[in-house]
Design goal:
Elements (H helix, E strand, L loop, with lengths): L8 E10 L4 E7 L8 E2 L2 E3 L6 H13 L9 E6 L9 E10 L12 E8 L11 H9 L2
Parallel strand pairs: 1-6
Antiparallel strand pairs: 1-4, 2-3, 2-7, 5-6
Length: 139
């Protein structure tokens, strides 16, 4: 009898928060991996919540920006086996369009939060977040 090897997969949700003027909200990570790199707000899906609910919660916890789960539009799922050095992660990514004057406050796991113009993104983005941003802004 052949045994099937299984792996543990962690489930996360990320948010691309964009303004009509072409800025995106990023956080500076305050812990490894990618400590000091810029990333999309996001995190683990808690038991009993959908990834859309987790995305809205994580956006609020990490940046102070509040949207409802219904305000989020699905971009897609990223789940390549090597996308995170900590192990296997599957991430549902969502898009939120927020007003240009939306105020932000870094919280939870973020060193800082900042609006970046899409034409002038930081050189170092964590994980595969550059791919998620490209997908979110593809026309």
């Amino acid at each position: 009898m052949t045994k099937t090897k299984t792996e543990s997969i962690r489930y996360t949700a990320d948010v691309v928060a964009l303004t009509p003027h072409g800025t995106v909200l990023l956080i500076e990570r305050d812990w490894p991996p990618y400590e000091g790199a810029w990333a999309l707000p996001g995190g683990h899906v808690d038991p009993g919540e959908s990834s859309r609910e987790a995305a809205a919660r994580e956006l609020a916890e990490e940046t102070g920006v509040h949207v409802t789960a219904d305000d989020l539009h699905e971009i897609g799922t990223w789940n390549k086996p090597d996308r995170d050095p900590r192990g296997r992660y599957s991430t549902d990514a969502y898009l939120a369009i927020v007003p240009t004057d939306t105020q932000i406050t870094a919280g939870d796991d973020a060193r800082t939060a900042r609006w970046w113009h899409m034409d002038n993104l930081p050189e170092r983005l964590a994980f595969d977040h550059a791919d998620i941003l490209r997908a979110a802004t593809a026309s």
